[in-house]
Amino acid sequence: MNGTMIFHKAGLQSSIQDMGRYGYRKYGVPLSGSMDQNSAIRANLIVGNEPGAPVVEITVVGPQIEFTSDATIALVGADLTPKLDKKPISLNTRVNVLKGQVLEFGKCKYGIRAYLSIAATLQSEKVMNSFSQYSGITSDHQLRNGDQVGYMNGKLMSEASSAIKIDKKYFNTKKLEVFPGPEFNLLGKDQLKSVFDQDWTIGPNNRMGYQLNNKLMPGHTREIITTQTIPGTIQLTPAGKLLALMRDAQVTGGYPRILQLSELSINQLAQKTERSIVRFKIA
Amino acid sequence: MDESNLLMEWPGAISKEIMVEIAAWQHAIEKDLGKIIIECFAAYRSLLITYDHQQIDEENLEIELLKLQINHKKFRTRKWAVPVCYDESLAPDLAKVCEEKKLSKRKVIKLHTSDLYDIHFYGFLPGFMYLGGLDEKLHHPRKTNPDSSLPAGSVAIGGSQTGIYPTSSPGGWHVVGNTPIKLFDIKIDPPCPFKPGDQIKFKSVSIKEYNKIKKEVESGTYKFQKA
User: Fold this and answer.
1) What single DSSP character describes residue A10?
2) ipTM above 0.85, yes or no
3) What are the chain A neighbours of B196 within 8 Å (beta carbons)?
4) From CA B36, how far away is CA A219, in angstroms rounded?
């Protein structure tokens, strides 16, 4: 059955994302894609989709979505207290939604990004081989109040034994696994100590990157010739702050790349927000 | 850099020779290793290769790279003309740049249009070219307070670089002109007309010509010109 998700409210920052827009970084186009790809993939697998199918990324304050035909959905990632027609529903499992029902969210209990998958083919704008919304590439970088996203061949699946187990540590862990970055050797003794033996506090953050602060970290004056960065690259700014680049980051940069987050750690960082504490550990 | 990204780096300063060599490597990798490579892209002195780590590991990828035949001396690059209108109405910072550099408007335009600029790579914004070769007489520190929005096509000078803002964007460079041509178009594949390794030359056009070209661009009849 074909239907439409009507976003009566779009929420704080909801957008359609897939695994990213590969093949266009040589033209300066950022990768984009789900911030927490681990959760996005699981959401798809639960409803029998391809792992990289487009999903709705929901951030902190969820949207209000009406479904115009029956479909099976799943929510994986942050617990934003999802409710279907005001009744609480479970995360990490299939949920059958009937025509006219409304999905809403409440308090953000843990994590900050939830992924909504649907057992259907999402009808969304595909630009340069990707559904990921990004400013200047797709017509908007996020969903707006009143937006409608169609779905084709929606089906109802059995809800039985579809639940997957999620380890809460995934959201609570302070530890971020890193590899040494290309300019790791620029770090002096004091800087190494700050990087690995002290806490870092998350500052302002968005889909482009996370600022990480530690008052004891010495600054530096080393500029490097503009070079490539990838999601998970951690740059050291002259003021001694760290910038963890995320999915929407520019493809090049001029700050030393001292660390590189593992794929798992990028996903875990994507579930954290301001004032959370993290620590780095060499993988 | 991680389990699916390999970084190739070249030593030394930014140069045209390295730019062409990197472009030749990129071309060979895309042509011969397309099956194991997801994508690769250049910067001034480096090439980043994103590969499918389920098909190949870093060690074997390096072996494959060493087998490639790279003939960068024969690598073909092109020279393009980019029309730029330096009329005051499209160049909000030109008068100030002239004043601060103690150069006449004619001289600034002459200096800006006489050299070929090397396209090292794209970055910063989709379709933004990192260009090498700006005449030292035109080097000018960036603005301390960036403008919140520069129009698409703005041709600007910042520090030792010159560039074109392909889309409307905040920017800290001094806008000395505007080009009517589109440097990034999502409706066309590839979305950018020029390749890293190519060169461009700015060609001064009158406001009348600018408007004529703009109409051609909008109707899809504009043809990119060789320099």
Assistant:
1) -
2) yes
3) 26
4) 40
- Number of alpha carbons in the 13 Å side-chain half-sphere of residue A75: 25
- Among B7, B126, B196, the residue with its CB nearest the CB of A29 is B126
Its sign, for the CA torsion A9, A11, A13, A18, is negative
Q: What angle do CA A7, A8, A11 make, to 5 degrees?
A: 70
In words, the CATH class of domain A173-282 is mainly beta
Q: How many CB pairs under 8 A join A and B?
A: 94
| Region B5-67: CATH code | 3.30.1360.40
CATH topology of domain B79-222: Cyclophilin (2.40.100)
Tracing tokens 């905040």 back to the chain, one arrives at B170
* pTM score, whole prediction: 0.93
Q: How many CB atoms lie within 10 A of CB B17?
A: 11
* CA atoms of B57 and B59, how far apart (whole Å): 6
Q: Could you tell me the two tokens for B159? A: 């520090």
- Distance from first CA to last CA of chain A, Å, rounded? 47
**How many residues does this entry show for chain B?**
227
Indicate the DSSP class of residue B94.
H
For chain B, 227 residues long, give each residue's pLDDT as a single digit of tens: 888 999 999 998 899 999 999 999 999 999 999 999 999 999 999 999 999 999 999 999 999 999 998 887 788 889 999 999 999 999 999 999 999 999 999 999 999 999 999 999 999 999 999 999 999 999 999 888 888 899 999 999 999 999 999 999 888 999 999 999 999 999 999 999 999 999 999 999 999 999 999 999 999 999 999 98
Each domain of chain A, given as residue ranges in start order, spans 3-152, 173-282
Q: What share of chain A is helix, strand, coil (3-state, %, to 5)?
A: 15, 35, 50
Cβ–Cβ under 8 Å, residues B202 and B113: yes
**How far off is chain A from B19, nearest CA to CA, in Å?**
13
Q: Domain limits of chain B? A: 5-67, 79-222
Residue B51 to chain A, least CA–CA distance (Å):
11
